[in-house]
Structure formats: structure tokens, C-alpha cells
Design a protein that fits this description.
231 residues, globular, 15% strand, alpha/beta, 8 helices
Length: 231
């Protein structure tokens, strides 16, 4: 099982899966066995690099670190991260729904410009057809641009922004990017591949993250499974 999931799961999640399969096991025993056979999850965090720029339109922090939501499409988080595993640096932009932590939009580009942020937001709006959503981001130039702010407003999206230089105000997205890089690249010892392969790995991982990867805070369900409870 650990190898099936490419050693992305820790002992708690392995225990939860075993219990779902009908095995009555203690998490301490699972941890002991995983240690014995070198099956512990491969985890390595990497610090995020920020994209700077002008800040013509700054929105107030409406969330104040209240990251939970009681229903889908109340709060969305968005951010951009570097992918330095290919021939050239790529940039991944995503939008996550606070309710079930599902990645509802993802776009990869060779440039971290306003178009990247807009394409990500447009994809999320098409998929969810949602109105009156709070979209939380950092104060990067792509989000404070007038073009992005105007498009969000025209589509009924209320923007919220972290305090300048405070990564903890958007900790949910920070955590997702760290997990993606750890589980999709570092733990698999992937350091340098083609840009095409990087794109394929990221898309495969996001599908895995949404549909397969269980989360403790979601009662050991995947984001999609958890979201289906309110469908």
C-alpha cells in the first residue's frame, strides 16, 4: 500500500485506509511496521519564493485567518508557486475551495503575469458558476493589478488579501504547494526533467490530490469524496 501511494502517506493515513478495508489495527503498530520496512512517508518542505511587483489596488484581509467554510464556494484561496524541475522555470497558479480543500482551477505558465492569474480565475468561474465568493490571495502584483481586480468585481468576486509579507495569512495555499512539491517531486527524487513532464506530473498529482488523497481534517476522505456529501 505504501508503495502504491509512492510513500506519500504517513502512518495515520495508512491506518485509516486499513481500517476502511476492515482491518482493526492500532496506529502505533502501523508506525512500527512502516519503520521496520523503511516505508515511512518521504517528506521535505521547501520555502516559497515570492513574486514582487507594484501594488496599485490592495484589498483588505477579509478572512483574518478564518480558513474554514461551511459550504462550497464561500471562500476560495489562490496563489502562484515556482516549479523549478524542468528545462525552464514554470509557474503554477491554483484556486482552492476552502470547504473541502479541492483544487478547482490550475494553470501552468512560463510567465507569472496577470494573464496567468486571470486564466486561473476564469477557469474556476466556468467550473463552479459561483457568485458572491471571497477570493483570498497575497499582495502580489498579478492580484493587485487593476485588470485582475476589475475582472473579479465584474464577476461578483470579492477579493481579500494577506498582509504584506505575511505568508501565514494564506497558509492553506502555502501548505498545498509544499505538499505538492514534496509528494510529487522531492519524495520521488525528481530533480530535472522536461517541462512537458513537469506539466504531466503536476496534472496527475492534482487529480490524485482531489480524488484519491485522503485528509485527516476531511474525516479521512478525499476532497471530492467530502464535497459529494453536500451534492
Amino acid at each position: 500500500m505504501c508503495r502504491q501511494y509512492k510513500q506519500r502517506y504517513g502512518y495515520r493515513k495508512v491506518t485509516a485506509i486499513l481500517r476502511r478495508l476492515g482491518f482493526h489495527v492500532n496506529h502505533k503498530k502501523v508506525l512500527r511496521i512502516m519503520r521496520m520496512y523503511s516505508l515511512l512517508s518521504r517528506v521535505r518542505r521547501k520555502r516559497k519564493v515570492y513574486i514582487g511587483g507594484a501594488e496599485p489596488v490592495v484589498s483588505p484581509n477579509l478572512l483574518q485567518r478564518e480558513f474554514e467554510a461551511t459550504a462550497p464556494n464561500q471562500k476560495w484561496f489562490t496563489d502562484v508557486t515556482y516549479l523549478m524541475f524542468g528545462e525552464r522555470t514554470l509557474y503554477l497558479s491554483t484556486i482552492m475551495d476552502a470547504y473541502n480543500r479541492e483544487i478547482i482551477s490550475s494553470v501552468i505558465s512560463e510567465s507569472p503575469n496577470v494573464r496567468l492569474a486571470l486564466d486561473t480565475l476564469k477557469q474556476a468561474i466556468r467550473k463552479r458558476n459561483a457568485k458572491s465568493v471571497i477570493l483570498h490571495s497575497d499582495q502580489g502584483s498579478i492580484y493587485t493589478s487593476k485588470e485582475f481586480q476589475m475582472y473579479a468585481k465584474e464577476n461578483g468576486i470579492t477579493t481579500s488579501m494577506s498582509r504584506k509579507g505575511n505568508c501565514h495569512d494564506n497558509a492553506v495555499m502555502e501548505s498545498f504547494f509544499a505538499v505538492l512539491k514534496c509528494e510529487a517531486f522531492y519524495s520521488q527524487q525528481i530533480t530535472k526533467v522536461s517541462n512537458t513532464t513537469v506539466r504531466e506530473i503536476v496534472l496527475e498529482y492534482i487529480h490524485y490530490y482531489n480524488c484519491v488523497r485522503i485528509q485527516e481534517k476531511l474525516n479521512y476522505l478525499s476532497p471530492v469524496e467530502y464535497g459529494e456529501q453536500v451534492a
